Amino acid sequence: MTLAQHFAAYSEWRTELSEALGKFGGWLVDNELTDAQTDRRISQLLEKLREDRLHVAFVAEFSRGKSELINAIFFADYGNRILPSTAGRTTMCPTELMFDPAKAPSIELLPIESRESKDSISEYKRFRDEWTIVPLDTGSAAAMQEALRHVSDVVRVDRAVAEKLGFTITDGDTEVFRVDAAGTVEIPRWRHAIINFPHPLLQQGLVILDTPGLNAIGTEPELTLSLLPNAHAVLFILAADTGVTQSDLTVWREHIGTPGGRKKGRMVVLNKIDSLWDELKSTEEIDAEIARQVDICAWTLSLPEDQVFPVSAQKALLAKINGDRQLLDRSRLSELELALSEELIPAKQEIVRDNTESEFSDCYLRTRGLLESRLTGLREQVTELTELRGKNKGVVEYMMGKVRLEKEEFDTGLQRYYAVRSVFSQLTNNLFTHLGLDALRLLTNTTREAMVNATFSRTLSGAMEHFFEVARGNLVRSRGEVNEITTMMEVIYKKFAVEHGLRLGTPIAFSLRRYEKEVNRLDQWCSTHINTMFQLLTHEKTQLTQRFFEEVAVQVRKTFEHANRDAEGWLKAIMAPMEIQIREHQIQLKRRLESIKRIHQATDTLEERIAELVHVEDNLVSQMVVLKDIGQGVRDVLDKSVGSEALRSAA
Ligand SMILES: Nc1nc2c(ncn2[C@@H]2O[C@H](COP(=O)(O)OP(=O)(O)OP(=O)(O)O)[C@@H](O)[C@H]2O)c(=O)[nH]1
Ligand SMILES: [Mg+2]
User: Using an 8 Å Cβ cutoff, are 637 and 395 in contact?
Assistant: First the structure.
């Protein structure tokens, strides 16, 4: 089974899950059991599943064979080399391969000049007119190759222009961006490329990121700060003919290696093992040589040996195109593909499963709670009315009084609910004073001011540190407020459960931990890339200030934006069940009272009324049966594994 097949199995699972959830949503609507909140949550879940993407990035020094490996793993079916792969520097800009059906097949190119503005690539993605768009003729491999050659485009500019665009130009022969006699330097023509291409895997949500060699990665901070850390798998490629060079090590440390050891989804490929194939040597000797190289790579990167995958991308591509099984085996690509699917797919499935499961369970339990409380209320009413059989008016009056009292009690309870609501909004306000974007905006402005006015590098450095301290402090305080809200809601949920029999369960938990972690990561990056003694001594204050805001502060802002969105969703989700159940309970009490009143007026309607209620009860019971079936259906799909065991048995 190839990676493509594993991936297809995963996509199928996702489709099945969407269908099961869709059925649940439809049933809720048909049975008038839905509310705005649940509706929104289910459509968000479905949207997330539809837009679910799996990001795989290829990172290495230039000419290690990244593009060739992508061709071999994903595009061999086209019978040719789709991405350009040649000796020397080929891919000049980060290139994303994906498919968005809303757009025609094309290659979109963001001009390098866009670096002059402060905006990030993701910002530019919202403005299509800033991109140069070249249509892709997917019917012809030759036409595609021709169009994709644009990722190698370069331009010659003056040294000053290159520097302004963020390229580090140093003199000396070994540097990538070299100044020629005329004082010009060759730089990439494009800043970023997006290839929109209806390949089956891309259609199913795979996104491949091909990157250019070291220097170009370093100059696009969004890659190192956001695209690579968020990729589900990152393949780091070394070449057997060069071994692990100093610049390979730099790329590894900067972009992939984690100090604390191995991170999930990070894999090392030792490419070009065909350079070790030697007709004069026996297979055993060649294998031993490959093993030795693997051992050196693993040792240098301090990884276990089984994390380094020796392959020949070029021979694998050739073998797949010619259907040469023997050569494909020798290229060892299948081992890498299997390991990649095992890293990627079960982990990805787990993320999707966890997200879906908690959201779905919540909607499911809420619906069941609603039906259960309706049923309990109804049964009480039936019992109440049954007890009235053959009783005189006095008893009916007594019953009426009882229900009226209950209603009054509940109305008093409602006062408490209104009080809770006002405390809740007070606590929410407190939360947003720290977590909200206004606080961050203020912090950003004061930091900018401090940095602009700084006369000493120490002040400059202190301002950056202070920025992170305050940002972190805001998250910590928000955490306290989240806890306070949770505790209060727990108490209230319990009170309403005990005193009025509402079925509320426990409030959903919420944690800001991952945002704290993200801010720590950005802080770490800042203090090794911008806020360092070396940078402070060798760069202009304005340049460092600009970098700090364009590269770091902007990511912190994004983190806070996500945290805010999450927190808002959570606040709605913990308040909603109470609102729904209280409304429901009120309706029930009113109905009970009316029902008894009617009987009080005309005792002969009693049997009719009981029969009516029993009919409603039957309906409720069958609704609960259907709900259980639908819930089981979703759970069955969730529990299915397209993970390693399933893959192995299918292989
Ligand atoms: N012998 C051999 N050569 C390979 C192999 N894989 C790639 N190459 C060659 O190595 C050169 C560089 O390959 P690319 O795919 O362009 O490398 P890259 O990492 O994408 O390089 P940049 O785009 O410049 O960053 C090309 O000439 C490839 O044909 C391999 O497995 N064996
Ligand atoms: Mg390349």
Answer: no
List the chain domain ranges.
53-153+189-331, 398-601
What residue owns the CA closest to ligand 1's atom 23?
91
Is this prediction's pTM over 0.70? yes
Determine the residue of 68, 90, 277 to mutate for testing ligand 1's pocket, defined as the one with the most ligand atoms within 8 A of the Cβ atom. Answer: 68
Distance CA 604, CA 70 (A): 81
Name the superfamily (CATH) of residues 53-153+189-331.
P-loop containing nucleotide triphosphate hydrolases (3.40.50.300)
Long-range contacts, 76-81 (Cβ 8 Å, 24+) = 76/316, 76/317, 76/320, 76/321, 77/320, 78/141, 78/144, 79/141, 79/321, 80/141, 80/142, 80/145, 80/321, 81/145, 81/317
Which amino acid would we find at residue 14? Answer: R
- d(CA 213, ligand 1 centre) in Å: 12
Q: What is the pLDDT of residues 528-542, one digit of tens each?
A: 888 988 888 888 888
Q: Summarize pLDDT for 433-450 with one digit per residue, the tens.
A: 999 999 999 999 999 999
Q: Report the separation in Å between the CA atom of 202 and the middle of ligand 2, taken as the mean of its atom positions.
A: 19
pLDDT digits (tens, 9 = 90+) for 298-327: 999 888 888 899 999 999 999 999 999 999
Of 425, 515, 523, residue with least CA distance to 475: 515
Encoded tokens for 414: 């409602």
